[in-house]
Amino acid sequence: MKQDVDCKETATMPVYPPMSSRQNQFEALVRGHSTDLYRYAYWLCGQDALAQDLVQDTFLRAWRALDKLREVGAVKAWLITILRREHARLFERKSMPSDDIDDFDLPDPQATPERRTEESALRQAIAKLEPKYRDPLVLQVLGGFSCSEIAAQLGLGEAAVMTQLFRARQKLKGQLGLDDQAAEVSEL
Amino acid sequence: MNCLEFRRRLGSEPACSFEDFVAHRAECVHCAAAHARAEEFESRIRAAFNVAVPANLADRILLAQTTEARHERRGRRRGFAALMLAAAASIVVALVAVNRPRTEVPELAGMVVDHLREHVVGADRTGSPVPKQDVMDAFAARGVSLASVPDGVNYVHKCPAGPYNTVHMVMPERSGPVSVVYVADKRIAGQVDFSRDGMHGRQLPLGKGSLVMVASADADFDAIERVWKSAMGEAVATSEGFAVPVLQSPGPGAILAAP
Protein backbone atom coordinates (compact mmCIF):
# COMPACT_ATOMS: atom_id res chain seq x y z
CA MET A 1 0.00 0.00 0.00
CA LYS A 2 1.16 3.50 -0.76
CA GLN A 3 2.03 6.19 1.72
CA ASP A 4 -0.38 8.96 2.61
CA VAL A 5 -1.57 10.80 -0.42
CA ASP A 6 -2.99 14.30 -0.12
CA CYS A 7 -5.72 13.48 -2.57
CA LYS A 8 -6.85 10.37 -0.64
CA GLU A 9 -7.62 11.37 2.88
CA THR A 10 -9.62 8.44 4.18
CA ALA A 11 -9.10 5.05 5.59
CA THR A 12 -10.69 3.56 2.48
CA MET A 13 -7.39 3.44 0.67
CA PRO A 14 -7.44 1.20 -2.38
CA VAL A 15 -4.97 -1.64 -2.65
CA TYR A 16 -2.58 -1.00 -5.50
CA PRO A 17 -1.49 -3.73 -7.86
CA PRO A 18 2.23 -4.44 -8.21
CA MET A 19 3.89 -1.60 -10.11
CA SER A 20 5.35 -2.03 -13.57
CA SER A 21 8.98 -1.15 -14.18
CA ARG A 22 7.78 1.88 -16.16
CA GLN A 23 5.71 2.96 -13.18
CA ASN A 24 8.69 2.37 -10.89
CA GLN A 25 10.88 4.46 -13.17
CA PHE A 26 8.36 7.26 -13.20
CA GLU A 27 7.91 7.21 -9.44
CA ALA A 28 11.68 7.43 -8.98
CA LEU A 29 11.69 10.37 -11.38
CA VAL A 30 8.98 12.20 -9.45
CA ARG A 31 10.47 11.55 -6.03
CA GLY A 32 13.95 12.45 -7.21
CA HIS A 33 13.18 15.65 -9.11
CA SER A 34 9.86 17.16 -8.01
CA THR A 35 11.50 19.32 -5.33
CA ASP A 36 14.04 20.91 -7.68
CA LEU A 37 11.46 21.23 -10.41
CA TYR A 38 9.00 22.98 -8.09
CA ARG A 39 11.66 25.46 -7.00
CA TYR A 40 12.65 26.08 -10.58
CA ALA A 41 8.99 26.58 -11.55
CA TYR A 42 8.48 28.87 -8.59
CA TRP A 43 11.31 31.17 -9.65
CA LEU A 44 10.11 31.00 -13.23
CA CYS A 45 6.52 32.06 -12.56
CA GLY A 46 6.59 33.52 -9.06
CA GLN A 47 3.41 31.84 -7.83
CA ASP A 48 3.07 28.80 -5.62
CA ALA A 49 -0.17 27.44 -7.10
CA LEU A 50 0.96 28.01 -10.65
CA ALA A 51 4.32 26.43 -9.92
CA GLN A 52 2.57 23.31 -8.56
CA ASP A 53 0.40 23.10 -11.68
CA LEU A 54 3.43 23.53 -13.90
CA VAL A 55 5.31 20.74 -12.15
CA GLN A 56 2.32 18.42 -12.30
CA ASP A 57 1.76 19.12 -16.00
CA THR A 58 5.46 18.62 -16.63
CA PHE A 59 5.50 15.19 -15.03
CA LEU A 60 2.29 14.16 -16.81
CA ARG A 61 3.94 15.02 -20.12
CA ALA A 62 7.08 13.22 -19.01
CA TRP A 63 4.99 10.13 -18.22
CA ARG A 64 3.49 10.12 -21.70
CA ALA A 65 6.94 10.52 -23.26
CA LEU A 66 8.87 8.32 -20.84
CA ASP A 67 9.71 5.78 -23.53
CA LYS A 68 11.63 8.48 -25.39
CA LEU A 69 13.98 9.01 -22.47
CA ARG A 70 17.26 7.34 -23.35
CA GLU A 71 19.92 8.99 -21.21
CA VAL A 72 19.28 8.76 -17.50
CA GLY A 73 22.01 11.35 -16.92
CA ALA A 74 20.10 13.90 -18.97
CA VAL A 75 16.81 13.46 -17.19
CA LYS A 76 16.93 16.71 -15.26
CA ALA A 77 17.64 18.76 -18.36
CA TRP A 78 14.84 16.88 -20.13
CA LEU A 79 12.36 17.68 -17.37
CA ILE A 80 13.41 21.32 -17.25
CA THR A 81 12.96 21.61 -21.00
CA ILE A 82 9.43 20.21 -20.67
CA LEU A 83 8.69 22.59 -17.82
CA ARG A 84 9.96 25.60 -19.74
CA ARG A 85 7.71 24.65 -22.67
CA GLU A 86 4.73 24.21 -20.35
CA HIS A 87 5.44 27.63 -18.91
CA ALA A 88 5.70 29.14 -22.38
CA ARG A 89 2.35 27.58 -23.32
CA LEU A 90 0.77 29.00 -20.21
CA PHE A 91 2.32 32.36 -20.86
CA GLU A 92 0.86 32.36 -24.36
CA ARG A 93 -2.58 31.39 -23.10
CA LYS A 94 -2.87 33.67 -20.11
CA SER A 95 -0.36 36.46 -20.71
CA MET A 96 1.05 35.74 -17.27
CA PRO A 97 3.63 38.24 -16.06
CA SER A 98 6.72 36.09 -15.68
CA ASP A 99 8.55 38.45 -13.37
CA ASP A 100 5.81 39.25 -10.90
CA ILE A 101 7.19 37.40 -7.91
CA ASP A 102 5.67 38.88 -4.82
CA ASP A 103 5.36 36.16 -2.20
CA PHE A 104 8.48 35.50 -0.22
CA ASP A 105 6.99 34.56 3.08
CA LEU A 106 8.52 31.10 3.02
CA PRO A 107 10.97 31.17 5.90
CA ASP A 108 13.04 28.21 6.89
CA PRO A 109 11.80 27.35 10.41
CA GLN A 110 15.30 26.22 11.37
CA ALA A 111 16.86 29.55 10.47
CA THR A 112 17.69 32.30 12.95
CA PRO A 113 15.80 35.62 12.64
CA GLU A 114 18.92 37.28 11.18
CA ARG A 115 19.29 34.51 8.65
CA ARG A 116 15.62 34.78 7.68
CA THR A 117 15.93 38.53 7.14
CA GLU A 118 18.99 38.02 5.00
CA GLU A 119 17.29 35.28 2.95
CA SER A 120 14.23 37.44 2.51
CA ALA A 121 16.35 40.36 1.26
CA LEU A 122 18.19 38.07 -1.11
CA ARG A 123 14.91 36.64 -2.43
CA GLN A 124 13.63 40.13 -3.05
CA ALA A 125 16.84 40.93 -4.87
CA ILE A 126 16.60 37.77 -6.99
CA ALA A 127 12.99 38.58 -7.81
CA LYS A 128 14.00 42.04 -9.00
CA LEU A 129 16.47 40.61 -11.48
CA GLU A 130 15.36 40.76 -15.07
CA PRO A 131 14.39 37.28 -16.34
CA LYS A 132 17.39 37.25 -18.69
CA TYR A 133 19.65 37.36 -15.62
CA ARG A 134 17.48 35.31 -13.27
CA ASP A 135 16.81 32.39 -15.63
CA PRO A 136 20.43 31.28 -16.11
CA LEU A 137 21.16 31.86 -12.43
CA VAL A 138 18.27 29.60 -11.39
CA LEU A 139 19.42 26.94 -13.82
CA GLN A 140 22.95 27.13 -12.47
CA VAL A 141 22.19 27.25 -8.75
CA LEU A 142 19.15 24.97 -8.60
CA GLY A 143 19.80 22.82 -11.62
CA GLY A 144 23.53 22.50 -11.17
CA PHE A 145 24.04 23.05 -14.89
CA SER A 146 27.29 24.29 -16.41
CA CYS A 147 27.43 27.40 -18.59
CA SER A 148 27.43 25.31 -21.76
CA GLU A 149 24.41 23.30 -20.58
CA ILE A 150 22.54 26.49 -19.70
CA ALA A 151 23.43 27.91 -23.09
CA ALA A 152 21.91 24.84 -24.72
CA GLN A 153 18.77 25.12 -22.57
CA LEU A 154 18.24 28.79 -23.32
CA GLY A 155 19.36 28.70 -26.93
CA LEU A 156 22.16 31.20 -26.28
CA GLY A 157 25.90 31.25 -26.75
CA GLU A 158 28.08 30.18 -23.85
CA ALA A 159 29.79 33.57 -23.72
CA ALA A 160 26.44 35.34 -23.45
CA VAL A 161 25.41 33.03 -20.60
CA MET A 162 28.66 33.71 -18.77
CA THR A 163 28.11 37.44 -19.10
CA GLN A 164 24.54 37.17 -17.85
CA LEU A 165 25.57 35.07 -14.87
CA PHE A 166 28.39 37.47 -14.03
CA ARG A 167 26.02 40.44 -14.20
CA ALA A 168 23.31 38.62 -12.25
CA ARG A 169 25.70 38.19 -9.34
CA GLN A 170 26.92 41.75 -9.67
CA LYS A 171 23.38 43.04 -9.53
CA LEU A 172 22.54 40.90 -6.50
CA LYS A 173 25.59 42.15 -4.66
CA GLY A 174 24.77 45.69 -5.69
CA GLN A 175 21.23 45.40 -4.33
CA LEU A 176 22.50 43.90 -1.09
CA GLY A 177 25.25 46.49 -0.73
CA LEU A 178 28.01 43.89 -0.89
CA ASP A 179 31.40 44.32 -2.46
CA ASP A 180 31.37 44.33 -6.20
CA GLN A 181 33.10 41.45 -7.93
CA ALA A 182 33.44 43.56 -11.06
CA ALA A 183 35.57 45.95 -9.05
CA GLU A 184 37.78 43.03 -8.03
CA VAL A 185 38.25 42.13 -11.67
CA SER A 186 39.00 45.67 -12.75
CA GLU A 187 41.62 45.99 -10.02
CA LEU A 188 43.62 43.15 -11.53
CA MET B 1 44.80 30.66 -16.66
CA ASN B 2 45.78 34.06 -15.28
CA CYS B 3 44.15 35.99 -12.46
CA LEU B 4 41.85 38.00 -14.76
CA GLU B 5 40.56 34.90 -16.50
CA PHE B 6 40.12 33.20 -13.14
CA ARG B 7 38.09 36.08 -11.71
CA ARG B 8 35.91 36.28 -14.79
CA ARG B 9 35.15 32.58 -14.58
CA LEU B 10 34.64 32.87 -10.83
CA GLY B 11 32.05 35.59 -11.34
CA SER B 12 30.01 33.52 -13.73
CA GLU B 13 30.64 29.95 -12.58
CA PRO B 14 32.05 29.75 -9.03
CA ALA B 15 31.63 25.98 -8.92
CA CYS B 16 33.70 25.56 -12.07
CA SER B 17 35.81 22.42 -12.00
CA PHE B 18 37.97 23.03 -15.06
CA GLU B 19 41.50 21.80 -14.51
CA ASP B 20 43.19 25.17 -15.16
CA PHE B 21 40.66 26.93 -12.91
CA VAL B 22 41.38 24.56 -10.05
CA ALA B 23 45.11 24.75 -10.68
CA HIS B 24 45.17 28.56 -10.58
CA ARG B 25 43.18 28.59 -7.37
CA ALA B 26 45.76 26.31 -5.80
CA GLU B 27 48.69 28.49 -6.77
CA CYS B 28 47.31 32.06 -6.25
CA VAL B 29 46.55 33.10 -2.69
CA HIS B 30 44.52 36.18 -3.68
CA CYS B 31 42.36 34.26 -6.11
CA ALA B 32 41.89 31.48 -3.56
CA ALA B 33 40.62 34.10 -1.10
CA ALA B 34 38.29 35.53 -3.76
CA HIS B 35 37.04 32.01 -4.42
CA ALA B 36 36.32 31.50 -0.72
CA ARG B 37 34.29 34.75 -0.65
CA ALA B 38 32.42 33.68 -3.77
CA GLU B 39 31.65 30.28 -2.23
CA GLU B 40 30.21 31.96 0.85
CA PHE B 41 27.98 34.14 -1.33
CA GLU B 42 26.91 31.08 -3.35
CA SER B 43 25.76 29.29 -0.22
CA ARG B 44 23.59 32.30 0.61
CA ILE B 45 22.12 32.34 -2.91
CA ARG B 46 21.41 28.60 -2.69
CA ALA B 47 19.60 29.09 0.63
CA ALA B 48 17.53 31.91 -0.86
CA PHE B 49 16.55 29.84 -3.89
CA ASN B 50 15.48 26.91 -1.73
CA VAL B 51 11.90 28.02 -1.09
CA ALA B 52 9.71 25.63 0.88
CA VAL B 53 8.19 22.87 -1.23
CA PRO B 54 4.49 22.06 -0.68
CA ALA B 55 3.90 18.95 1.40
CA ASN B 56 3.00 15.80 -0.52
CA LEU B 57 3.83 17.36 -3.88
CA ALA B 58 5.31 14.12 -5.22
CA ASP B 59 2.33 12.10 -3.98
CA ARG B 60 -0.12 14.43 -5.66
CA ILE B 61 1.77 14.21 -8.94
CA LEU B 62 1.76 10.42 -8.72
CA LEU B 63 -1.95 10.41 -8.01
CA ALA B 64 -2.60 12.56 -11.06
CA GLN B 65 -0.44 10.27 -13.16
CA THR B 66 -2.02 7.02 -11.95
CA THR B 67 -5.46 8.50 -12.58
CA GLU B 68 -4.45 9.40 -16.11
CA ALA B 69 -2.74 6.06 -16.69
CA ARG B 70 -5.83 4.20 -15.56
CA HIS B 71 -7.94 6.22 -17.92
CA GLU B 72 -5.53 5.52 -20.77
CA ARG B 73 -5.73 1.78 -20.10
CA ARG B 74 -9.49 1.94 -20.05
CA GLY B 75 -9.43 3.85 -23.32
CA ARG B 76 -7.20 1.21 -24.90
CA ARG B 77 -9.44 -1.59 -23.64
CA ARG B 78 -12.44 0.24 -25.00
CA GLY B 79 -10.66 0.70 -28.30
CA PHE B 80 -9.90 -3.00 -28.55
CA ALA B 81 -13.40 -3.98 -27.55
CA ALA B 82 -14.82 -1.53 -30.05
CA LEU B 83 -12.74 -3.13 -32.80
CA MET B 84 -14.00 -6.61 -31.92
CA LEU B 85 -17.54 -5.45 -31.77
CA ALA B 86 -17.44 -3.46 -34.96
CA ALA B 87 -18.34 -6.36 -37.23
CA ALA B 88 -21.20 -7.52 -35.06
CA ALA B 89 -22.37 -4.00 -34.51
CA SER B 90 -22.79 -3.44 -38.22
CA ILE B 91 -25.61 -5.96 -38.14
CA VAL B 92 -27.48 -4.54 -35.20
CA VAL B 93 -26.45 -0.90 -35.19
CA ALA B 94 -29.98 0.38 -35.53
CA LEU B 95 -31.17 -1.82 -32.67
CA VAL B 96 -28.33 -0.63 -30.42
CA ALA B 97 -29.10 2.99 -31.18
CA VAL B 98 -32.75 2.54 -30.27
CA ASN B 99 -32.00 0.66 -27.06
CA ARG B 100 -29.13 2.84 -25.83
CA PRO B 101 -29.75 3.43 -22.12
CA ARG B 102 -30.70 6.99 -21.27
CA THR B 103 -28.69 6.89 -18.06
CA GLU B 104 -25.34 6.10 -19.68
CA VAL B 105 -22.56 8.09 -18.04
CA PRO B 106 -21.17 10.72 -20.43
CA GLU B 107 -17.42 10.73 -21.06
CA LEU B 108 -16.55 13.80 -19.00
CA ALA B 109 -18.70 12.71 -16.08
CA GLY B 110 -17.11 9.25 -16.35
CA MET B 111 -13.69 10.78 -15.81
CA VAL B 112 -14.98 12.73 -12.85
CA VAL B 113 -16.59 9.62 -11.35
CA ASP B 114 -13.32 7.74 -11.85
CA HIS B 115 -11.50 10.54 -10.05
CA LEU B 116 -14.02 10.53 -7.19
CA ARG B 117 -13.47 6.82 -6.72
CA GLU B 118 -9.75 7.48 -6.39
CA HIS B 119 -10.08 10.60 -4.33
CA VAL B 120 -12.38 9.67 -1.49
CA VAL B 121 -12.89 12.61 0.85
CA GLY B 122 -13.31 11.55 4.45
CA ALA B 123 -16.16 12.75 6.62
CA ASP B 124 -13.59 14.28 8.96
CA ARG B 125 -12.63 16.69 6.17
CA THR B 126 -16.14 17.91 5.40
CA GLY B 127 -17.44 18.85 8.84
CA SER B 128 -17.36 22.61 8.40
CA PRO B 129 -17.24 25.12 5.56
CA VAL B 130 -13.84 25.99 4.17
CA PRO B 131 -12.92 29.69 3.95
CA LYS B 132 -14.43 31.25 0.86
CA GLN B 133 -11.05 32.62 -0.08
CA ASP B 134 -9.78 29.03 -0.42
CA VAL B 135 -12.52 28.36 -2.96
CA MET B 136 -11.73 31.61 -4.77
CA ASP B 137 -8.04 30.68 -4.85
CA ALA B 138 -8.69 27.17 -6.16
CA PHE B 139 -10.76 28.55 -9.02
CA ALA B 140 -8.27 31.33 -9.66
CA ALA B 141 -5.54 28.72 -9.98
CA ARG B 142 -7.65 27.15 -12.72
CA GLY B 143 -7.98 30.51 -14.45
CA VAL B 144 -11.56 31.11 -13.30
CA SER B 145 -12.67 34.26 -11.51
CA LEU B 146 -15.77 33.75 -9.37
CA ALA B 147 -18.32 36.54 -8.91
CA SER B 148 -19.16 35.06 -5.50
CA VAL B 149 -18.61 31.86 -3.54
CA PRO B 150 -21.68 29.78 -2.61
CA ASP B 151 -22.28 28.92 1.04
CA GLY B 152 -21.73 25.38 2.23
CA VAL B 153 -18.55 24.35 0.44
CA ASN B 154 -17.01 22.05 3.06
CA TYR B 155 -14.09 20.76 1.03
CA VAL B 156 -12.11 22.13 -1.87
CA HIS B 157 -9.08 20.80 -3.70
CA LYS B 158 -7.52 21.21 -7.12
CA CYS B 159 -7.52 17.81 -8.75
CA PRO B 160 -6.99 16.24 -12.16
CA ALA B 161 -9.74 14.22 -13.84
CA GLY B 162 -8.35 12.42 -16.83
CA PRO B 163 -6.57 15.11 -18.88
CA TYR B 164 -8.63 17.92 -17.36
CA ASN B 165 -7.98 20.36 -14.53
CA THR B 166 -10.74 20.52 -11.97
CA VAL B 167 -11.77 22.02 -8.68
CA HIS B 168 -13.17 19.24 -6.51
CA MET B 169 -15.61 20.28 -3.79
CA VAL B 170 -18.01 18.63 -1.36
CA MET B 171 -21.26 20.38 -0.40
CA PRO B 172 -23.22 18.68 2.39
CA GLU B 173 -26.86 19.26 1.42
CA ARG B 174 -30.21 18.30 2.94
CA SER B 175 -30.42 15.02 1.08
CA GLY B 176 -26.79 14.14 1.72
CA PRO B 177 -23.38 15.30 0.62
CA VAL B 178 -22.84 16.18 -3.01
CA SER B 179 -19.52 15.97 -4.79
CA VAL B 180 -19.31 19.05 -6.98
CA VAL B 181 -16.51 19.12 -9.52
CA TYR B 182 -15.83 22.08 -11.79
CA VAL B 183 -13.91 21.08 -14.92
CA ALA B 184 -12.17 24.28 -15.94
CA ASP B 185 -10.87 23.35 -19.36
CA LYS B 186 -13.72 21.40 -20.97
CA ARG B 187 -17.10 22.86 -21.83
CA ILE B 188 -19.72 20.30 -22.76
CA ALA B 189 -22.57 21.04 -25.15
CA GLY B 190 -25.58 20.56 -22.87
CA GLN B 191 -26.94 19.26 -19.59
CA VAL B 192 -27.07 15.50 -19.03
CA ASP B 193 -28.40 13.62 -16.00
CA PHE B 194 -27.01 10.15 -15.41
CA SER B 195 -26.86 7.38 -12.85
CA ARG B 196 -24.45 4.56 -12.17
CA ASP B 197 -24.04 2.01 -9.41
CA GLY B 198 -26.77 3.62 -7.33
CA MET B 199 -25.27 7.09 -7.62
CA HIS B 200 -26.89 9.99 -9.44
CA GLY B 201 -25.14 12.66 -11.40
CA ARG B 202 -25.56 15.71 -13.56
CA GLN B 203 -23.17 17.50 -15.86
CA LEU B 204 -23.83 20.89 -17.38
CA PRO B 205 -21.91 23.61 -19.19
CA LEU B 206 -20.93 26.46 -16.89
CA GLY B 207 -18.77 29.43 -17.72
CA LYS B 208 -15.91 28.28 -19.90
CA GLY B 209 -15.98 24.83 -18.32
CA SER B 210 -18.46 22.27 -17.02
CA LEU B 211 -19.95 21.43 -13.65
CA VAL B 212 -20.40 17.80 -12.61
CA MET B 213 -22.42 16.82 -9.52
CA VAL B 214 -22.47 13.30 -8.08
CA ALA B 215 -24.47 12.16 -5.04
CA SER B 216 -26.58 9.34 -3.71
CA ALA B 217 -29.67 11.49 -4.37
CA ASP B 218 -30.33 14.15 -6.98
CA ALA B 219 -32.74 16.26 -4.91
CA ASP B 220 -30.29 19.14 -4.45
CA PHE B 221 -28.86 19.28 -7.95
CA ASP B 222 -31.19 22.09 -9.10
CA ALA B 223 -30.30 24.27 -6.11
CA ILE B 224 -26.56 23.65 -6.49
CA GLU B 225 -26.78 24.35 -10.21
CA ARG B 226 -28.44 27.70 -9.48
CA VAL B 227 -25.91 28.84 -6.89
CA TRP B 228 -22.96 27.92 -9.10
CA LYS B 229 -24.48 29.67 -12.11
CA SER B 230 -24.89 32.68 -9.87
CA ALA B 231 -21.32 32.33 -8.61
CA MET B 232 -20.11 32.33 -12.21
CA GLY B 233 -22.09 35.48 -12.91
CA GLU B 234 -24.65 33.73 -15.09
CA ALA B 235 -28.29 34.83 -14.90
CA VAL B 236 -30.43 32.40 -12.92
CA ALA B 237 -34.06 31.81 -13.88
CA THR B 238 -36.58 31.30 -11.04
CA SER B 239 -40.35 31.37 -10.80
CA GLU B 240 -40.08 35.05 -9.77
CA GLY B 241 -37.81 36.01 -12.61
CA PHE B 242 -34.03 36.17 -12.45
CA ALA B 243 -32.49 35.91 -9.03
CA VAL B 244 -29.56 34.64 -7.06
CA PRO B 245 -30.64 31.78 -4.82
CA VAL B 246 -28.83 30.93 -1.60
CA LEU B 247 -28.26 27.41 -0.44
CA GLN B 248 -29.10 26.47 3.12
CA SER B 249 -26.27 25.77 5.50
CA PRO B 250 -25.34 22.12 5.89
CA GLY B 251 -27.26 20.16 8.47
CA PRO B 252 -25.55 18.78 11.56
CA GLY B 253 -25.54 15.22 10.29
CA ALA B 254 -24.12 16.14 6.96
CA ILE B 255 -21.02 14.23 6.20
CA LEU B 256 -19.71 12.43 3.33
CA ALA B 257 -17.88 11.87 0.49
CA ALA B 258 -17.63 10.89 -2.98
CA PRO B 259 -18.89 7.52 -4.17
From TrEMBL, chain A:
It holds the Pfam family Sigma70_r4_2. One of its GO terms (biological process) is DNA-templated transcription initiation. Residues 29-93 form the RNA polymerase sigma-70 region domain. InterPro entries: RNA_pol_sigma-70-like, RNA_pol_sigma-70_dom, RNA_pol_sigma70_ECF_CS, RNA_pol_sigma70_r2, RNA_pol_sigma70_r4_t2, RNA_pol_sigma_r2, RNA_pol_sigma_r3/r4-like, WH-like_DNA-bd_sf. PANTHER family: RNA POLYMERASE ECF-TYPE SIGMA FACTO, RNA POLYMERASE SIGMA FACTOR. Belongs to the sigma-70 factor family. ECF subfamily. This is RNA polymerase sigma factor. It comes from Dokdonella immobilis.
UniProtKB/TrEMBL annotation, chain B:
InterPro entries: DUF3379 (IPR021806). The chain crosses the membrane at residues 80-98. It holds the Pfam family DUF3379. It comes from the Bacteria. Keywords: Membrane, Transmembrane, Transmembrane helix. The keyword Transmembrane helix applies. This is Uncharacterized protein.
